[in-house]
């Protein structure tokens, strides 16, 4: 898959969107899940990300890769959702009634696998600022500079958050302290 618009040739926006969804759909879903911690909400946000992507394809300026661009859209969608009234007021109800629906979609299987991973569960207990740098750095294999670009912060801020997140995880996994809120 080419990552720059100029190499897309005669592809329509619809064909390009399909390629982007196939190439980056799992990534978008994983990132969304780290923010909202619920499979169905992450899937809804993923759909919103690709709707925004499709609506903005004509204005994509090739200043970054499609992957970086999708990270930024995903982070913005997630932050908008987490700040929303419905998330703050309804999330507790869904956590109390966490039913395990049998969804056979590939995207759901990816999230399910990660949900079972002890370390990933501990990462999800971290604050959003610590959690997002760990996800981008370790799960999405971004460099410190790439994570800083996606999160629109200084690279030293990413390094500091990585240090604090590792320390919090180490303490918790060793049976120590409660993770940061």
Give a verbal description of the structure.
- With 181 residues, the chain is mostly helical.
- It folds into 2 domains: 1-98, Orthogonal Bundle (Rna Polymerase Sigma Factor, Chain: A), CATH 1.10.1740.10; 117-181, Arc Repressor Mutant, subunit A (Orthogonal Bundle).
- The chain contains 9 helices and no strands.
- It starts with 12 loop residues before the first helix and ends in an 8-residue tail after the last helix.
- InterPro entries: RNA_pol_sigma-70-like, RNA_pol_sigma-70_dom, RNA_pol_sigma70_r2, RNA_pol_sigma70_r4_t2, RNA_pol_sigma_r2, RNA_pol_sigma_r3/r4-like, WH-like_DNA-bd_sf.
- Residues 20-84 form the RNA polymerase sigma-70 region domain.
- Residues 121-169 form the RNA polymerase sigma factor 70 region 4 type domain.
Tell me the layout of helices and strands.
Blueprint lengths: L12 H24 L2 H18 L9 H18 L1 H12 L9 H11 L1 H7 L3 H12 L4 H8 L3 H19 L8
What's the end-to-end separation, in Å? 39 Å
Strand content: under 5%
Q: What is the third-level CATH name, the topology of the largest domain?
A: Rna Polymerase Sigma Factor, Chain: A
How many domains, as an integer? Answer: 2
Classified by CATH, the class of the largest domain is Mainly Alpha
Brief descriptors of the model:
disordered C terminus; mainly alpha; Rna Polymerase Sigma Factor, Chain: A; disordered N terminus; 181 residues; Arc Repressor Mutant, subunit A; 9 helices; 2 domains
């Amino acid at each position: 898959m080419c990552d720059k618009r100029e190499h897309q040739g005669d592809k329509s926006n619809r064909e390009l969107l399909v390629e982007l969804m196939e190439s980056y759909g799992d990534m978008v879903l994983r990132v969304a899940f780290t923010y909202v911690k619920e499979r169905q909400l992450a899937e809804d946000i993923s759909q919103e990300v690709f709707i925004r992507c499709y609506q903005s394809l004509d204005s994509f300026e090739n200043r970054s890769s499609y992957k970086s661009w999708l990270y930024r859209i995903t982070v913005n969608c997630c932050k908008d959702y987490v700040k929303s009234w419905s998330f703050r007021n309804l999330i507790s109800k869904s956590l109390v009634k966490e039913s395990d629906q049998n969804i056979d979609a590939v995207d759901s299987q990816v999230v399910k696998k990660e949900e079972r991973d002890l370390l990933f569960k501990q990462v999800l207990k971290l604050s959003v600022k610590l959690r997002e740098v760990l996800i981008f750095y370790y799960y999405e294999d971004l460099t410190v500079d790439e994570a800083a670009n996606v999160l629109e912060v200084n690279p030293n801020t990413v390094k500091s958050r990585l240090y604090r997140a590792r320390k919090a995880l180490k303490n918790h996994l060793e049976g120590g302290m409660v993770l940061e809120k």
